[in-house]
Amino acid sequence: MPIKVSNITGKRLITTAFLAALAASVAGCGTTSKFTTGSISRSSGKPLETMAAGELHNATIALGESYAKNPNDKRIATNYAAALQMDGDADQSLAVMRKLAIAFPKDRDVLAAYGKALAANGQFEPALDAVRRAQTPEYPDWRLVSAEAAILDQLGQKDEARQNYRKALDLKPNEPSILSNLGMSYVLEGDLRTAETYMRSAAEQPNADSRVRQNLALVVGLQGRFDEAEKIASQELSPEQAQANVAYLRQMLAQQNAWSQLKDQDKDKPATN
Hints:
72% helix; single chain; signal
């Protein structure tokens, strides 16, 4: 899916990509990240994250119909929540997962998906609690360790976050989603060169998925290398989607520069009584 931007501030765009990385971290914790319910799955079987907007919306509707018939089916509910999240309905996604968490209060998979839904709604403290409760200390799941790190980053606890990323890499060496999340940690700090190093390492892994490469395109674009960013994005998206993403980046950076200039001009003005 292309990066969706509801306004043209760098923080919002980066947070959107970071939450996508968090979704990738939690997606494999015992649940499926592919749409596998109903007639659409039999005709396409495509992962949700690779669907175009229209396909995703249709998949969400079909999953909703299945969910209405059996709301306590873990697989259907978690897939439906994931589809809602990716289709832009974070509130309903959280409502689905909250109901499922009440029904399965000790289920690790449900807690992990609930934590993701909470984080996507900006409720980072409860999200951290849910992810930690889903973890089994004696047999730690690298996906949950990485998800915990991503949430800690959103809480501004970068040092602890990076310790967790490295712990996750010890458990799963060269895992692209962890490397990508670690790169996003440096994006949040504004260290785009270090971020790109991790992103490139992630994208070079044979099991890297579309989201990892789209995040690399984002980091390259944030550095103003728009042609290169569009080339990377075009490997995953249609030419129109890739161009649209780069256009968002250009607009965002132009607005940031204009805002900085206005602030500098304001500083230079003499004080008035």
